[in-house]
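Changelog-adjacent note: as of this version, every example in the card shows the full chain rather than a window. The one below runs 247 residues end to end.
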Amino acid sequence: MRGTGKKAILVGGGPVHTGLLRTALMAGYDLLLAVDGGGKLLVDLGYQPQLLLGDFDSLPRSYEKDLRAKGVQVLGYQVEKDWTDLELAFGQLIAQDYREALVFGALGGRLDHTLANIALLYRMKQAGMDLVLIGDEQAVTLLTGQEKLRIIPFPHGHFSLLPYPMTARGVSISGAKYTLDKATLELGTTRGIHNEFLRKPVAIGLDSGSLLIIVEGLRHCPEGTALFQRLPRGEKQETAVSPRNSN
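Full-length structure tokens:
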């Protein structure tokens, strides 16, 4: 994530890697937002959100009442509405000028919600917000033209690059088993599927378009790991070329 700007942590009701959630909570935040059933997980972990938002169809009533009694700000919505709870939560972040957020519990579970949440990565990026979605087994973020990031490796983990929602040009990868130098990944290609970590962080960048960076195998990821590190624009990235496809 970027080193400047206000940082939020959102916790939804989907599958969560609790070790990485604890790591994020201990690192600090400007806003802790519980999205519906995510309020139960936070309370059970000993944390009190500053904002609770949702239609509360997946949060036990006793948790909602207790958080209200403790003075937590609550924004309630009807179950029948045009937007998901998570999209409404992102609207709150944009209104409060947040620029980065870790979102737990937004992957896995229902496929329609997972795909919609991945699409929200692009929409929020267009609004100036960097998001990382973290489930119990995968983490996903979006990289756009002229941006660079590092992935912190961990044993038995692997990663994939998918152009989304457009062709990615000038894609470079260094520090991984399979490297690229200024490659083009067209929407629909599988060339970026399943790359492997070596010992050092993996650096990824692109010139134009956008890429989903998907890290898999989080069940092997130890608590205390920071998965992604965004790099300042203009920082040099080592590149090399090796034969590519692991499938």
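Structural remarks: Confidence is low (pLDDT under 50) at residues 238-247.
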